[in-house]
Amino acid sequence: MSIVTFNCKECQKPSSYEQEDWDCFKKFGFEPQELCFECDQKQRLCFRNERALYTRKCDATGETIISIYSSDKPYKVYKSDYWYGDKWDALSYGRDFDFNRPFFEQFKELQLQVPRLALTNINAVNSDYCNSAYGNKDSYLIFGGDFNQNCLFGTLCMSNVGSLDLDYSNFNELCYVMGDTLNSYGCRVTFDSKNCNNCYFISDCIGCSECILCTNLANQSYCINNQKYSKEEYLQKKQELINGSYVQQQKNFGDFLDLLKKRKVKYIHTVSCQDCSGDYIKNSKNCKNCFDVSESQDLRNIIFASKEKDCFQSCLLGDDAELLYQCVSVMKCYNIQFSFFIADSSNIQYCDFIQNSQNLLGCTGLKNQQYCILNKKYSKEDYEKLYAKIVEHMKKNGEWGKFLPKDLACFGYNESTSSAYYPLTKEQALKEKFQWKDEDEKTAQPQRLKIPDQIKDFTDAMVNEILLCLDCHKNFKIVNQELQFYRKMDIPVPRICSECRHKQRMQIRNPRQLFERICSNCSKKLQSTYAPKRPETVLCEECYLKEIY
């Protein structure tokens, strides 16, 4: 297999293209861009804001709304029902293309004029503070998650009930602090596990019940530190370890982190896959250098996708899309390039916030349209002629085939999903020419109350009192729905805010980066997200199955 090496034009680090990369560029008809995987993804992800929510005015109605756009942003922002309504027309902002000016400059001007949707929160019931989400009910601060009910603080989590602090976890009920966990009930602090009940501080477990501080177990019960106990002994020890005390919970968490370092791990988290590389891939075929992908085929250099086919260098893809290149936040689409927030559409290039439309170039905010350029409508024949001329113009200017420039992103780097996946300081971000959102210069108020060690001592009067996060030193509150969950589960009130808790969980999860490793048992060569200096014992799939099962 031929390999072309180069220095990334952004970070200057050595990188390479394999023959399959070249084949993908050729399939989409674009010239290769000399960017490493991380720099390539960072530029797209900075166009998506999942988690930073603000209070501002709707520019149409004057109402106070929740939005991903802060009030100091230069955009017009409409609340959801008004944006989807018929009281305004995005085509009214259409303009002719000026062949004396660059395309990106004209597209940016259009972005500043066409109203933007405040939140992408579809079919929500009593779940106003969710974003990039669909079908959530009675839920709060769910980001990129769908069909959750009575859940709080979740990221890319689906179909959970009555749970809190969830990442990449689906079909769980009455659970607390979970990462990549499926079909579990009544569990707390559970990672990379499935089909477990009433387990605490576990990782890499399947079909277990009543286990505490355990890893690499299958179909076990009444275990502590991977040691089997009688039911009576276990329940006695459980009363000491899971006693509702914040101090004991922190000790358990520290012991859990130490336990993770001693695990035997399979080099990659894949299930029912054929010819795949990356991590967290399920029921997929021929997906290379992909992360968080399920039920997909023929993908390459992708972060998070579900039910996709023939997609290349893209991220955060929803169900049922095909032939995507250099896209972010696209679902149910065909043949989309260099675009973001596109749904139920086809044949789209260099667009954003498009729904149920076809054959568009350089458009924003359109619904149910076709044959438009810069939001101006044309006949099919005129569109195709003008499209060809603009492509040649963009090629001459060096624009065609490149993703949208960083200054067209609507968010600061620290507001964007890119910051969550690839954290940078302000100085680093500005050096890489990303935008940055400066925070309001307000002094954090002192913590007004001492949080008790036990949940029973946290009174109703303390709800919505200002607390000071011990990690980021920002103000946060315990909301009533959250407090009721802690009381029901006898879980102590946290001392850090939900964002810092999310970052803490993400530190447990492996990076989206592949390293050369060898199996610790048989010395087989592997590509793994476990870096060479990490302490875990990394095994190939065959050796892992022999060791664990």
Q: Keyphrases for this structure?
A:
single chain; alpha/beta; twelve-stranded mixed beta sheet; nine-stranded mixed beta sheet
Describe the structure.
It is a single chain. This protein is 22% helix and 30% strand. Strand 33 (515-518) and strand 34 form a beta hairpin. Strands 19, 20, 21, 22, 23, 24, 25, 26, 27, 28, 29 and 30 form a twelve-stranded mixed beta sheet that branches. Among the domains are: 3-45, no CATH class; 515-548, no CATH class. It contains twelve helices and 35 strands. The mean pLDDT is 95. The chain has 549 residues and is of the alpha/beta class. The chain starts with a strand and ends with a helix.
Helix content: 10-25%
Distance between the termini: 36 Å
Question: How many beta-strand elements?
Answer: 35
In terms of per-residue confidence, which ranges show pLDDT below 50 for 5 or more consecutive residues? Answer: none
What does the average pLDDT come to? 95
Structural class, judged by helices and strands? alpha/beta
Amount of beta strand = 25-35%
Number of helices: 12
What oligomerization state is this entry in?
single chain
Shape: globular
**Largest β sheet strand count, sense and barrel closure:** 12 strands, mixed
Computed CA radius of gyration, to the nearest angstrom: 25 Å
List the helices and strands and how they pair.
Layout: E1 3-7, E2 14-18, H1 19-28, H2 37-45, E3 54-57, E4 64-67, E5 77-78, H3 80-84, H4 103-113, E6 116-117, E7 121-122, E8 133-134, E9 140-143, E10 152-155, E11 164-167, E12 176-182, E13 188-194, E14 200-203, E15 209-215, E16 221-224, E17 227-228, H5 231-241, H6 246-261, E18 264-266, E19 270-271, E20 278-282, E21 285-294, E22 297-306, E23 308-317, E24 321-331, E25 334-343, E26 346-349, E27 352-355, E28 358-361, E29 370-373, E30 376-377, H7 380-396, H8 417-421, H9 426-431, E31 467-468, E32 475-476, H10 480-489, H11 498-508, E33 515-518, E34 525-528, E35 537-539, H12 541-548
